[in-house]
Amino acid sequence: MRLNLRLRIFLFFCLLAIAGLALAAGAMAFGWFRAPDVRPTGPFLTAFVVFGFLNTGLILVVWLLFDEHVAKPINRLSAHLRLRAHAGVDCDVTPDTAQYLGDLAPAVDALAQTVKTAGSGDDTKQLSDDHARLVALLSEIPIATILLNAADEIILYDGQAAALLSAGGTPCLKAPLAEYFDLSGFAEAKSRLSAKTDCVSFALHASAQGAGQNAKLKALEGGGHMICVDVETGAVARTEPRPLVFDFDLINAAGTTEVSTTPLSELCYVVFDTETTGLSVEQDHIIQLGAVRVLNGRRVPGEVMDAYVNPGRPIPLSSTKIHGIADADVADATDIGAVGRAFYDFARDAVLVAHNAPFDIGLLRAAEAQMGVKWNHPVLDTVLLSAAVFGTTQEHSLDALCDRLSITIPVQDRHTALGDAKATAEVLVKLLPLLEARGFVTFGDLIAETRRHSRLLEDLNA
């Protein structure tokens, strides 16, 4: 049952061919033994060989027709339905898709259109507009706000809080508060909370020796806490807009467990891409690195990394023609050691995701000595994920995947590290529910499946 439909049909026709040969051999043997006189075996063998070729040829032709007009259309219709049901991709089903399957294609199209109409009402747009207004309003409140779940992991932070968190590392959802602040004052404040005192003041320290920030701690109904930090006017420099970053699905998130047994929907993913001086892992260097974070099946707005890297050598003109990055663009950039350490901090406790991951991960591992870190994160490759969903016979380039999943890459973003990272993240977001629908629920399930397609690309998980 794990075999795909086309292979099962092919094996069925192989069985028919073998059964035909067996019946022919039995009939000829029966006739030879029933003959009144001793007969030469040559004519019988010749007749058997001729029948074998004709029988096999006929079954081969019938199988090819059946595969082209029945098996392939059924696979296409199944793919259309799964893309619509699990990834929200709008796929038009034309009568030509399955013209020999009667009314099946029009029926599938009618179902897809009904689902599309049901999910495109005015209420959805109103909710989206209200969400945008609320985010804009809360982002302007002059108080740094951090929400924590019961495991003291961050589930919301605003622009002011992002600046405070940046002192201890890259602000990230689902990151433990302990990675940014000394928790001695926080723990003491939690101990003072009670049914009668649901809000207490305390000093929030960035480190055990650092100066404290005046803060208030409030218990949230159902578990978790809110931290509000007084921010002096002008104390938080805003060099760029910082959105309100949150994911309330993290309120009930389970604590960190073994990656292999963790459901795909509960993992944190950092999707990244690089632009380089060339195509050799051993001889070329990274000149741009872009990354985004994906949590709960959604890309997290505001959690983005985009950096130029000075490779310490001229960028070949042939490479500049592809990505548009010239020596002048990276002249004032830092080296891969500093950028790599910042990316390592950005990707802590996450699964790294890339398209054609052996190349990008190989470049990071080649520079481990300069960065002073070890890149031993779990890794997913969207090429292998595509093979697990669509089969190895399909094309798995980033452009082909975006076209198949109705993802648009702006022309100006193609062949930029951040643009390709965003596109790859959108691919991941749409592939995850398709993978779960096929029974690959945990990270371990998925790795076992992608290793079956190792002839396409090497699996990088130990």
Describe the protein.
This protein is α+β, with helices and mostly antiparallel strands. The chain contains 15 helices and eleven strands. The chain has helices spanning 5-34, 42-87, 104-118, 122-139, 159-166, 184-192, 317-323, 327-330, 336-346, 357-366, 368-371, 382-390, 398-404, 417-437, 443-450, and strands at residues 143-148, 154-157, 199-205, 212-219, 225-230, 245-246, 268-276, 286-295, 298-308, 351-354, 379-381. The chain is elongated, with a radius of gyration of 30 Å.
Low-confidence stretches: none
Termini separation comes to: 29 Å
In terms of DSSP E residues, the strand content is 15-25%
**What best-fitting shape do the alpha-carbon axes yield?**
elongated
How many beta-strand segments?
A: 11
Radius of gyration: 30 Å
Question: How are the strands of the biggest sheet laid out side by side?
Answer: 3-4-5-1-2-6
**Helix amount:** 40-55%
Keywords:
alpha+beta, 462 residues, 15 helices, single chain, five-stranded mixed β-sheet
Per-chain topology:
Layout: H1 5-34, H2 42-87, H3 104-118, H4 122-139, E1 143-148, E2 154-157, H5 159-166, H6 184-192, E3 199-205, E4 212-219, E5 225-230, E6 245-246, E7 268-276, E8 286-295, E9 298-308, H7 317-323, H8 327-330, H9 336-346, E10 351-354, H10 357-366, H11 368-371, E11 379-381, H12 382-390, H13 398-404, H14 417-437, H15 443-450
Parallel strand pairs: 7-10, 10-11
Antiparallel strand pairs: 1-2, 1-5, 2-6, 3-4, 4-5, 7-8, 8-9
Helix pairs in contact: 1-2, 2-3, 2-14, 12-14
